[in-house]
Amino acid sequence: MHRRQFLNLTAAAATTPVLASCGGEPEGFPVNIKPGFPDSGFTPNSTAEEVTAGLDLTGKTMLVTGCNSGIGFETMRVLALRGAHVIGTGRTMQKATDACAKVEGKTTPLALELTSFESVLECVNQVQSLSLPLDSLICNAGISGRLEKQVVNDIEIAFLVNYLSHFLFVNKLLPTVLAADQGRIVHVSSRAAYRRTPPEGIRFNTLGASNGGFEYDSWEYYGQSKLANALFSRKLAQQLAATNATSNALHPGFVKTGIARGQGRLTEIGFDILGPLISKNVEEGAATTCYAASHPSLAKVSGEFLFDSNVVEVGGTHHLENDALADQLWTVSEEMLGDWL
Ligand SMILES: NC(=O)c1ccc[n+]([C@@H]2O[C@H](COP(=O)([O-])OP(=O)(O)OC[C@H]3O[C@@H](n4cnc5c(N)ncnc54)[C@H](OP(=O)(O)O)[C@@H]3O)[C@@H](O)[C@H]2O)c1
Asked: Which of 113, 192, 252, 322 sits at 20 to 30 Å (Cα–Cα) from 143?
């Protein structure tokens, strides 16, 4: 076999779990526009610029975590293009500053390292010191599952970065979102939230150093962290029901970004080779996030899951609407955060 053919096949095999989590055709999980919600008219190929065409976001303040790369960068670029003042966070001030400098419009860089609760609270202070209501708080930053289990301060790293630190961040900034006329919290989840979780949805006994007696599966850890994003959004929406604020979760599509970092060189090569053929580009990948954060048609929509810039229902057996699990997750999150909250 020619070396290049071998490399392509190997890369395809390596990328299979990624595709199963982020893209590919639905198997047992049909996704349809939710009854009662109109078809937005947008498609998987609609770009962030297209779904926000004609919107004037002047006077609105929107925060995007993970603004220096992939979906987060394009989200910041397009929201700023439409006139919003975008607060962009990066793991370091330098990363956030460099990203903001590449964008036309009004942006404010801030440091937010999600493996550190100190950094989360410092960023909260910085946002509060701006004294601006937050019209959209977009929880975008994230990592894929790691090749080997990693824990920081006894918390599994995908759960910590993708979910738990965002849970702390959002709860602390809730008054700032409620101060807006119609504040929105947008949780960038994934189809991994229903396709790649453990059967129980979230294995609470694996959130620390212990594997709970199960074999380590990086994509199950990613899946449960992304299910946590969706369940947090759902329960938050219930709590916000009497307010003008909303909370929604979404799958951005399978998007060619840096998300495969940490999954090993083989998977990265797979992404590089197959990505351009089967994935969305970042212009398309940021569409659903920008739609959820800004489109007027969603002003009263809360507690929903979005996909390709539409409110959808996901068929099959999964935990996206498991309120008992959402309650348990909330309680466990409060316990894990203790005095930080
Ligand atoms: N791409 C897809 O196919 C896909 C599919 C479904 C869901 N998603 C979700 O989309 C979101 C954006 O991902 P992406 O695809 O745009 O990937 P990406 O290009 O790798 O961007 C991820 C962003 O998160 C930041 N981040 C990572 N670890 C962090 C930490 N400890 N503290 C603070 N920020 C951190 C990264 O900062 P650095 O650059 O400094 O590491 C980067 O800005 C993620 O939540 C991901 O789970 C993506």
From this structure: 322
